[in-house]
Predict the structure.
Amino acid sequence: MAKGYLALVLHAHLPFVRHPEHEHFLEERWLYEAITETYIPLLHVFERLVADGIPFRLTVSLSPPLVSMLTDPLLQERYSRHLGQLMELADKEVERTRNSPFHETALMYQSMFREIAHSYHHTYGRNLIQGFRRFQDLGRLEIITCAATHGYLPLLMVNPEAVRAQIAVAVDLHRRHFGVPPRGLWLPECAYGPGIDQILKEFGIRFFFTDTHGVLFASHRPRYGVFAPIYCPSGVAVFGRDVESSKQVWSAQEGYPGDFDYREFYRDIGFDLDYDYIKPYIHPDGIRVHTGIKYYRITGRTNHKEPYVPAWAREKAAIHAGNFMFNRELQIKYLCRHMDRPPIIVAPYDAELFGHWWFEGPMWLEFLIRKIHFDQDTVELVTPSDYLQRFPCNQVARPCPSSWGNKGYNEVWLCQANDWIYRHLHLAASRMVELANTHTDAQGLLRRALNQAARELLLAQSSDWAFIMSTGTMVDYAVRRTKSHLANFLRLYDGIKGRHIDEGWLSWLEHTNNIFPDIDYSWYRSKQKELMAAG
């Protein structure tokens, strides 16, 4: 029997970006890059492990916007064309790099893209959600959800109905795609505030995660630190992030991804090669973009870069997987001397780190899982549900308000660059609740307008827009998205109140911002109204 447990948690999320009005929209490439470099490579890791009979347990959070995009026919078709271009470029690169230090890497990309295309079209039928569900049904993944549009919940709790709707929409979407209700929920940005856990309980959520200080600074000092969950007074369990295991993986300076033999992210042929050669594979307006084909390794901390050597990188991934496992063994052995139960080490990461930002990340993960199975008997991979089933009795304490953003609290999502958005979000949420309370059983055109108003509000509430404004990247796009969804909501509100809904414009909105086709505006009804109706 293992002496302790490791819970690897991968949070997969992208903001909902879908622009049918533009054939080549730059921000849609976020999804295409993540599919090619993260989501399909991770599925390939799971496939190989299952084929080799290696048991594993991982937790994967798939956010509702990401699920919606991965199952959207328009985006599926556009990604398929994008993949075709990638394969064409890779074939050209194999010829161009002959007799150069880059040829081996070009062959690697050619093989990789062909394998990805085969998986996407033939294994998964363009629907990667079915791929993840397969490993859930095999008992290898515990798939959990997130808030509907990754809204920053502590700053939305001014109106609890807005938070309740974020959770209701997410749980409903998850059940439709994965066949079971989610047992856990990834709080967007790991951001917790008072009262959120009570809403999670209403929807059957059994656990969530916070950053380290969210548990350590709880209302009562946690007896086991972050190495066992605590229960909120509501009964929902909280798992705190382990600092040591997290930093070893996500930190580009102190962690594995910064090793000099790993692939350099920022040297891409989309920027390096002659414009006339690369023009067919970048944006039609001539904007240079990342293609995903990168020939250099990190090399050092200067701008000088040496050619990437895939064999060296693979060897480093194996070494680092062994080092990570060794450190977890030492950590667990130490903790066992001070705890009267097996500890759990919770290591959560953004899934996009694996493959997109850290090219060797999926390879490292596969090495780690294999090593844990074959090379030791101290650590066992589990999910939070596994641990709660084995150890149902845990300390009760209220977590500290916190996030995993810079400085650990709300500053990233509430600062001078983005504070203007919240008065508008709060007003829109109050008006949405008003509409839901007023129209208890709307049908036809009115119901369509109410449902679309709910979609527009949810899209405006995405924490991604505030985050982008704070970091100063793609700010114009984030501001435009926030303002456009709020403007759409207000126009719908006025049309509903004045009984003059523009059906043509509503149809266009339903086609363009088509997230959550099964949404039910009544999720915004205030709880008091629901209780009165039930009585």
Observations:
- The mean pLDDT is 96.
